[in-house]
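Researcher: Please predict.
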Amino acid sequence: MRRYYYYGVPTDEKRSDETLVQTHGLKFYSTPFDGNKWHIQWHRFPKDHGLPEILTKHPHIAFEVDSLEEEIKNAKVIFGPYSPLPGYAIAIIEEQGVFIELVETKLSDHQLSLLEKEEFKKTAKK
């Protein structure tokens, strides 16, 4: 079953609350996940970001799923699956021309927010 997670919007505008995310050869700026029921997450992509270009131009909706493996079995996978954070795995698929990020995690919103902050601090020090 898919549960709404967030809406991701690409932007060229630098935001005061964005943080550089660098993981698995990927590089992008993202606003923090706050667990808000209708959360919107903004993504900005520098040169050499490592993601499929199409994902930098189109918004996507993210859903939490129980089994990423099951959800992507017969799907058109655009990117992933991969695990940018411990206990958090994602894949991006396309359905009817819409990009959908599927997230499998057992982390609470609070745990995820804390983990993101710690990982982003490590990245910023490099």
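Model: The chain has two helices and eight strands.
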